[in-house]
Write a structure and sequence with these properties.
The structure is a single chain. With 295 residues, the protein is of the alpha+beta class. It has one domain. The chain has 5 helices and 12 strands. Strands 1, 2, 3, 4, 5, 6, 7, 8, 9, 10, 11 and 12 form a 12-stranded antiparallel β-sheet that branches. A hairpin with a 5-residue loop joins strand 7 and strand 8. The two termini are 18 Å apart.
Length: 295
């Protein structure tokens, strides 16, 4: 464990947003006698793309000094206006520099979220260019074709990787369209460390259908679907010892970190068995071809 802790530096996993503040859900709380602000801010970057950032900031630093980040979030609470509050025309346009937040849900599912305490209004005269982008250093575990529910290939490529974080290691799934995916397959291989960058796709699509009835007005059926992807649009050269600024992650140390993670998850499941029966699901077999490290 000591070797894993020493050698696995935290991955740079960032998200960059320029968008209109869509929803503002912040509240002031007190924990252990210290005031803090927590909640979330959601930003609209297109007609269908919405990215939510979780916020958690204390009024005091570890040194018990005033936290400037908390002052900034207080400004957001008091002066930034969301679409939900004032409409799209008057809502505040914001730049966000945040982090990709990988975590396991209470249901035991690996999730991708975003967090930040740094939000800046666009200055007067500053050009508004809505975007939702990411960059992430990834240890490549597998490169395989994407398949749909019926097992047919979609034409896209799925890159599954491992991301060392401040408290362990977490999996991440990136996708690439056919042209970029072909380049990834030909240039990179499993076991390499690469910085991928691209677009954050958090689409919310609402479909309204009129259902005819025999009497009265047609019934309205509303369906909301979500599409969440980290879509690769480019990548760095593979990290190489003594060549690139950052060293590549060591395969053996990654394996040890995954083992530690698996043991921790197993312990958590064992504790939960006394309260609820754990449901098990079979992992999808995926495509019949592709590359994987096999651990």
């Amino acid at each position: 464990m000591a070797e894993t802790s020493t050698n696995l530096r935290q991955s740079k996993a960032k998200a960059y947003i320029m968008g209109v503040l869509s929803e503002k859900n912040l509240e002031v709380k007190t924990e252990d006698g210290i005031q803090l602000i927590t909640g979330s801010l959601t930003f609209k970057t297109s007609d269908v793309n919405f990215v939510k950032f979780n916020v958690y900031v204390k009024e005091l630093t570890k040194e018990k000094k005033p936290n400037s980040n908390c002052t900034g979030i207080q400004t957001v609470m008091n002066e930034y206006h969301s679409i939900a509050e004032v409409g799209a025309e008057e809502a505040t346009k914001v730049k966000v520099n945040g982090d990709i937040n990988l975590f396991r849900s209470q249901a035991g599912k690996d999730e991708v979220g975003f967090k930040s305490n740094f939000f800046n209004r666009l200055k007067e005269g500053e050009e508004y260019e809505p975007k939702a982008e990411f960059s992430v250093e990834t240890f490549i575990y597998s490169i395989v074709p994407e398949t749909d529910k019926e097992g047919a290939e979609t034409g896209r490529i799925v890159v599954t990787g491992w991301i060392p974080t401040y408290n362990g290691i977490e999996p991440i799934k990136l996708v690439a369209n056919q042209d970029v995916g072909s380049s990834i397959e030909s240039i990179f291989t499993v076991g390499q460390t690469v910085e991928f960058y691209g677009e954050v796709i958090n689409n919310r699509v609402e479909t309204i259908t009129e259902i005819p009835v025999a009497i009265g007005k047609p019934r309205i059926k509303k369906e909301v679907t979500y599409k969440n992807d980290l879509l690769i649009t480019g990548a760095s050269d593979a990290y190489e010892e003594g060549v690139t600024a950052e060293k590549p992650y060591d395969v053996e140390v990654i394996k040890k970190a995954i083992q530690v993670r698996d043991e921790k998850i197993a312990e958590e499941k064992a504790k939960a068995q006394n309260k609820t029966q754990t449901k098990t699901t079979q992992k999808p077999s995926g495509a019949a071809h592709g590359r994987s490290l096999g651990f």
